[in-house]
Amino acid sequence: MKLSVAIAGSEAMPNAFVVFRGVEESIKKAHELGFDGVELALKRPDEVSKSELRKLLKENNLEVSAVSSGQVFAARNLYFTDENKENRKELYETFCGFIDLASDFGGLVNIGRTRGSIGDRDPKLCENLFLDMAHSVADYAEKQGVELILEPVNRYEIDFINNLDECSALLKKVGRKNFTMMPDVFHMNIEDAHIGESLIRNKEYVRYIHFADTNRHAPGDGHMDWDEVFNALTSIGYDGWTTAEILPYPDPETAAKRTVAFLRGKYGKYYS
Ligand code: LER
Ligand code: MN
Fold first, then answer.
1. What whole-number distance in Å separates Cα of residue 130 and Cα of residue 115?
2. Can you tell me the distance from the alpha carbon of 110 to that of 66, in angstroms, rounded to the nearest whole number?
3. Catalytic residue at 245?
4. Which one of 74, 117, 146, 252 is CB 3.0 to 4.6 Å from 248, fit for a cystine?
5. pTM score, whole prediction
6. Residue 178 near residue 147, CB atoms below 8 Å
7. From ligand 1's centre to the CA of 130, what distance in Å?
8. Which ligand is located closest to the Cα atom of residue 114?
9. If DSSP codes are grouped into helix, strand and coil, which group holds residue 42?
10. Which domains does the chain have, with CATH numbers?
């Protein structure tokens, strides 16, 4: 497995759930502290220049693990279940931009809160709005060799697709090879009855994973059963990215250092 850390541009909102802010400084820090990659949490595709990014990654011997889109929802209020035509167009164009970026860097684009909520609307209508946008972005992504990864998110942040079973059921309806799943063990701790069993039951779709402890602090700083997480991932043959998407507590550097020390220490054999 490989270890990545979520980062964002310097003006990212507090709820971006990233460790470091400012792309250039973050990439340097991630390298210094012992990560293999960075997940780019972006509001807009043009926040980073491809040539600048390529240079920084090369200098720091890092990869992009994925492009994530939570801020497109949190800061721009764009989401898959929106009925408004203009907003849908803007969302589609934003995702095409992320897909273009991912076609050179990492090959994966996440859909977390950006799927949007249901609220008091008809759930079937919302599902159809989601599927319509999912098919459009999957078609574009397929041409670019990129995959979309849908993230189950806990009920306190969104009311649509909270656990892995719900996500798999929706992914079956999406029915595209390049549209799979990104579990986040922080959300799973709230929503899935059993983390290990749920990962195993939904293994067909598990493509990428977010790591945080139960309190969203660095892995090892809460009461997550990490043996269970690693045993389940090993049993399904998972050998991809594990990305720390945690609160920068007590400060970004300490949170990142504690993540690396814990995962490369106690669970080092999974990262060699
Ligand atoms: C939000 O809680 C989260 O986990 C992000 O990865 C998705 O927007
Ligand atoms: Mn997450």
1. 7
2. 7
3. yes
4. 252
5. 0.97
6. yes
7. 17
8. 1
9. coil
10. 2-270 (3.20.20.150)
